Amino acid sequence: MIKVLAINGSYREDGFTDQTVEALAQALVVAGAEIDVIYLRTYPIEFCLNCRACTQQPGAAPVECIHHDGMRELINKIEQADCYILAAPTNMGSVTAIFKRFMERLVVYAYWPWDMNGPQYRKAQAPKKKAILVSSFAAPGILGRWFFGTNKQLKMTAKVIGAEIVGTLFTGMIAKERHPKLPEGMRSKIKALAGKLVC
Ligand SMILES: Cc1cc2nc3c(=O)[nH]c(=O)nc-3n(C[C@H](O)[C@H](O)[C@H](O)COP(=O)(O)O)c2cc1C
User: Structural domain tally of the chain?
Assistant: First the structure.
């Protein structure tokens, strides 16, 4: 059975991101996948210390961080999953701070000894897994996709963990209501995206 890991960087219970990820999860279960949803807001993850102890060791597998926190379990989940949903609302033109904190801890996927200018990503040569990117924002859809950093940051997350993007779900103009509801019209797109992930 295909294992899908969803990493949700929303602060808000039952907000637009939660509803989108939930609808994707339901479609994936119908398509025969197994899905595990991680809510970063409840996950114990420390900030990266920029110590780069993890980046000194060569190898294709992520190296253990010096922090003993939830990230160890999450890295195992990332390694075991076949594909991913990477989701974060857009706040101040960027992924949320909790998603960024998670992203920075993915430095364990980089080989970057002190004498090297930039990192080499450990998964660069590995067969690619698949990822779907999810975000939402107040701005119109097309503007949000191109002008905010979120698209780039979610793409980078996928690249670092060794995934190629097979679809995106960026929804604009959803911040005019306190409790925005997932439009019924989005469900067919969600079903099609779920199909791309498990095919
Ligand atoms: C602190 C904060 C910053 C935000 N910044 C932006 C922004 O820069 N651009 C934008 O279009 N929407 C912005 N929004 C609107 C959010 O993107 C929108 O409410 C969010 O996608 C909803 O996700 P959620 O329901 O999962 O919380 C912001 C909202 C908050 C609370």
Answer: 1
